[in-house]
Known about the structure:
Elements: H1 2-11, H2 28-37, H3 44-54, E1 59-62, H4 69-81, E2 93-96, H5 100-113, E3 121-124, H6 130-139, E4 143-146, H7 148-156, E5 167-170, H8 173-178, H9 182-191, E6 197-202, H10 207-216, E7 221-224, E8 235-241, H11 247-257, E9 263-266, H12 270-282, E10 287-290, H13 296-307, E11 313-316, H14 318-321, E12 331-334, H15 341-348, E13 358-364, H16 369-379, E14 384-385, H17 395-404, H18 413-416, H19 447-450, E15 457-459, E16 465-467
Parallel strand pairs: 1-6, 1-7, 2-4, 2-5, 3-4, 5-6, 8-13, 8-14, 9-11, 9-12, 10-11, 12-13
Antiparallel strand pairs: 15-16
Helix pairs in contact: 3-4, 4-5, 15-16
The structure holds adenosine monophosphate.
Amino acid sequence: MACAALRACFKHPETCILTTFADLGLSPELLKAVDAAGYTEPTPIQAEAIPATLMMKDLIGIAQTGTGKTASFVLPMIDVLASGRRRALMPRSLILEPTRELAAQVAENFEKYGKNHDLKMALLIGGVQMGDQVKALNEGVDVLIATPGRLMDLFERGKILLNGCDLLVIDEADRMLDMGFIPDIEFICEKLPEQRQTLLFSATMPPPIEKLAKKFLDNPKRIEVSRRASTNENITAFKIPVKSREKRSTLRWLLNNDLVETAIIFANRKTTVRELNKSLQRHGFSSGEIHGDIDQASRNKELQRFKDGEINILVASDVAARGLDIKGVSHVFNFDTPWHPDDYVHRIGRTGRAGNKGRAFTFVAPEDGEAIENVEKLTGSAINIFGKDDVRVDLPKAAQKKASAPQKKSVPEQDDSDSEPDEKPKRGGRRKSAEAPAEERKPARSSRNADRGSDDRKADSRGRSRRREPEDDPVPAGEWNGPQPGFLNVGFD
Ligand code: AMP
């Protein structure tokens, strides 16, 4: 363990503290839960935040998801709350999260780490029946995990009193800012006792968050575990200059040829999420979607299908996918460059988690030009352009193979058009050879889907069905047997 800790120090000399969980002052019950979770050593933010929180200090943690920041506040909170009594309607601590998914994730963390403690927790999130939440509050809770909207709602109805709450966590503060929650947070802070402990976590510290911290935190310890808005070193990131109309075919090519196991694909608009998911399904990919227009129960169901491997591609909007902690996501695709550069860091942070390697691709169409400039300004470096050296299949060999391989049948044009669904497909027209759809070969996708019979019929949104031809069978991951797509030439000699 000492060697691993030393390695961590070399990697993060700025936060190097040779330490183990036992050194941090956590109780034996908590150490047992940490051990059961399989953690052998604290992450840099945990090494710094846990002792400070146990000493009741205010804290600013500048850390992105994937750094272990949730445990950095959940673990010490459990010990802090272990002594003391619950009272009806008066939660003893409050954690504010920007989205329901994040709130649910933090609740899961409490369950995991708090299993050896007698603590009561309530989750106050929108999209869920209020009755059970109010009942839990009536019985008294130690930890209340809430999204600002639902909390304000209950507070205004007099169903909750905040004056017994002397530990506040504001998580993902920069996201709260993006979502317009800062006035709500200020309101909530004013209702809490003045003498309290406040922990604020944020991936970036834009001026309004600095201002919020100055107003509501008392002499906070500041912990920054990585460069401002920096991205994780386990993630290999590329940008791909692409025409808007070629985004879908480019995506399919990559899904088929970049050894994709599981992928989250982000789009800026809900309509794009919906349409892209339909298009991927039409092409035989095993995909699902989450975005803000989908009710909470269906979002949870879709997430569970993704976590269980029932689908291996999730098309998502920023709000729905914010902070999701899903193990082993091999790829993130930004179908659109995000409008807010902070979202770039959050999006690609869904891969390369917990020490795993991940790949992130950002599509840059002419209309994404300004957005990518802002991303690169924020991360402080230019993102590499994806090119021949980065391709994960053997292109020359694939080309030879193709020359000797029988010609594949073209897939009906209407199914793979990059055009929006309301644009009419060109009947009987063939694609330009440069964009010929190598990706129409079926993908390396979850085995359940790949196992479907070759005569499986699929209906598209216009009610047509197409027979799955034998040539549609999945190509083993990494085998590339189509022409070289045009986008690989962009930016290369
Ligand atoms: P977070 O940054 O809170 O989203 O956590 C990212 C992931 O790291 C989660 O899956 C945690 O279970 C995991 N994790 C947290 N702390 C540790 C640790 N000390 N060692 C290994 N994994 C951890």
